[in-house]
């Protein structure tokens, strides 16, 4: 096995037994995470991200396939994995009646960190997380963003080589989300920590070195953020039509239009030639009494790429059926 690969799955399958049979939560997922990179497993709720993470960690048994961390099999070597890996679950439970300092010391003891090592590590760790001024504050009285930082500090107290985070910024305000991701960036750059993070937020994928797009238990794309966005053909026009529904119905049939997506009151149109097709779209809509406000070309984001790839996946499945 390549020593640079620290997380690996091969044809991973996880099924849950239900009353009427079995539900497949992970359907043949193969991925690799290399040492020192930030890998984002991106997808909507129910895509299978959390289940994949828990199987990799050995918290759930796999139905078939392979999964490992740092060369240790997820099913056979769970104790070795936990010694070397930090984990923040989606609902990370911090004892609310303990202070910030007491929480970090509690998790240090759970991980078997000696008192001498705690004295060395904890001050630096709290400084890193921006919590040095809050050591005596009860965890229950922290803001949502500070609780996430404390959870990160607790997961790092045993100095893991790999950190897995399951939707760590869910329900956190945008400023706190940005601060948390800045901490993850510092963690990777300063300590060389490998980071595996699940998130439903497409914009967070842009902060990762490598991204896996997951949908209905399958990995539908697996590459760098830039390469994934290049998988969508054409260039992207954005505008706000004065009459949304008629415009939305008319535009897909115009020449050179490759795909149409909606974004609030805006239409996002993938075209082969933005200058030419922009003029033609404006003319076609004007003939129907519809104006185009703010017509411009924009960069394709991960969100548009994900929607496009899901559509292709669904169309392929329909054709196969």
Descriptive notes:
- The chain is an alpha/beta fold.
- It folds into 2 domains: 5-229, 3-Layer(aba) Sandwich (Rossmann fold), CATH 3.40.50.300; 233-299, Alpha-Beta Plaits (2-Layer Sandwich).
- Helix content is 38%, strand content 30%.
- A 6-stranded mixed sheet has the order 6-7-8-3-9-10, with helices on both faces.
- The chain is globular and about 75 Å long.
- The chain starts with a strand and ends with a helix.
Helix amount: 25-40%
What's the shape? globular
Contiguous runs where pLDDT drops below 50 for at least 5 residues: none
Distance between the termini: 37 Å
Largest sheet: 6 strands, mixed
**CATH architectural designation of the largest domain:** 3-Layer(aba) Sandwich
Descriptors:
single chain, 321 residues, alpha/beta, Rossmann fold, Alpha-Beta Plaits, 2 domains, six-stranded mixed sheet, four-stranded antiparallel sheet, 14 strands, 38% helix
Question: What is the structure about, briefly put?
Answer:
This protein has two domains: 5-229, P-loop containing nucleotide triphosphate hydrolases (Rossmann fold, 3-Layer(aba) Sandwich), CATH 3.40.50; 233-299, Alpha-Beta Plaits (2-Layer Sandwich), CATH 3.30.70.100. The strands form three sheets. A six-stranded mixed sheet has the order 6-7-8-3-9-10, with helices on both faces. The protein has a four-stranded antiparallel sheet with strand order 2-1-4-5, covered by helices on one side. It has a four-stranded antiparallel sheet with strand order 12-13-11-14, with helices on both faces. Helix 3 runs parallel beside helix 5 and helix 5 (144-156) packs parallel to helix 6.
